[in-house]
Amino acid sequence: MAKKQHFYLILILGSLAALGPFSIDMYLPGFVDIAKDLKSTESTVALSLSSFFIGISAGQLLYGPLLDKFGRKKPLYFGLALYIFASFLCLAVTDVNQLIVLRFVQAIGSCATAVASVAMVRDLFSVEESPKVFASLMLVIAVSPMLAPTAGGYLISALGWKYVFVFLGLMAILMLLASIFKLPESYKPDPNYSLKPKPILTNFFTVLKEPQFYTYALISSITFSGLFAYVSSSPTVFMKIYEVSKTGYGWIFALLSIAFIGASQVNSFILRWFTSKKIVTYALIAQCIFSLMFLIFALNNWLNLYSTIGFIALFLACLGLINPNAAALSLAPFSKNAGSASALMGALQMGLGALASVMVSLFSEHSVVPMPLVMTAAAFIALCCLLIGSRFITNEVEASGDAAVAAH
């Protein structure tokens, strides 16, 4: 493959992979403005984030079989067209419920880009090249939460919150054109591939019976729900309670993203001395301690802007160690059903994330407490899952160091 073609492929696939993270994070600085314009509350606006998570959770299970049945490009075109349609309809919303529904539709569309980009890396690149390409994609996905809210903050301050959806719609149009004219069809459609529910569900049930999968997938997903609790409540906490500007919020979000990304990068070095299981155990205990301290400070009104940022950073740093190792351990027992296991874990993460963001939105908008409360509950429930689930794992398959590094 020519270097120029190689570069364009990675650029397009990386952009496709980044669409979901940009869609989640870019409009966060606009929560207060959206609530005012739509005569609603920030908590209700946060449900549009929850509906996006639910859409991603459902879409993860939908697109895998479609990509195998119809090839990579047709489902990708459908997903991008659906995303563009929903994005521009967001400009016409007059009610917060319309935004909540359209964000769900937008998420179903964006799922196609995430699933297709991963599948096409496997199709287009050799076994030797794939890890490097996946690393490039992971870097783009990791950097997106740092760039999106900051860019969104400036865009909303200058033009208003609806222009975020204009930007996202135009971004998706460029991706659709690049996919049509620059991406090759990397997989021959399989007309014999069955889309009947029974064989698909059988694969999922086979995965769910594995104790190592459900133990570590639950740990990964439950602790990840703490991240979603932070994401969905952070606009209210920082911009309404601490009165940070939209652009200031974007920079805080970027700073906190560094804690998560940095810890996941440090993980590759720690794996030289500790197994994935030990890292998960120690990081989970530390996360319980930090989140409990955060909750105690919140309940006693001891928090200020800087201590809040500090506690969130510590929670996210622990998550950066837990998530890649728990994900790798949950997938380690599988060779045949790795795709189904990966889809199930992704759906579980987003489903529980949606639940956590809904729970946060049910509480008062005038207190920091809901954020550390949900984060503390997530950490302690995950620790219980580890203690109970470990009893049912008879022959634990240790994740390779490479898998635990790549999983983040």
TrEMBL record:
Keywords: Cell membrane, Membrane, Transmembrane, Transmembrane helix, Transport. It holds the Pfam family MFS_1. It is found in: Cell membrane. Residues 9-397 form the Major facilitator superfamily (MFS) profile domain. It comes from the Bacteria. One of its GO terms (molecular function) is sodium:proton antiporter activity. CDD domains: MFS_MdfA_MDR_like. The chain crosses the membrane at residues 7-24, 44-63, 75-94, 100-121, 133-157, 163-181, 213-231, 251-272, 279-299, 305-322, 343-363, 369-389. It is a multi-pass membrane protein. GO terms for cellular component: plasma membrane. Gene3D superfamilies: Multidrug resistance protein D. GO terms for biological process: xenobiotic detoxification by transmembrane export across the plasma membrane. InterPro entries: Efflux_drug-R_Bcr/CmlA, MFS, MFS_dom, MFS_trans_sf. NCBIfam families: efflux_Bcr_CflA. Belongs to the major facilitator superfamily. Bcr/CmlA family. PANTHER family: MAJOR FACILITATOR SUPERFAMILY, POLYAMINE TRANSPORTER 2-RELATED. This is MFS transporter, DHA1 family, bicyclomycin/chloramphenicol resistance protein. It comes from Pedobacter terrae. The lineage of its organism: Bacteria, Pseudomonadati, Bacteroidota, Sphingobacteriia, Sphingobacteriales.
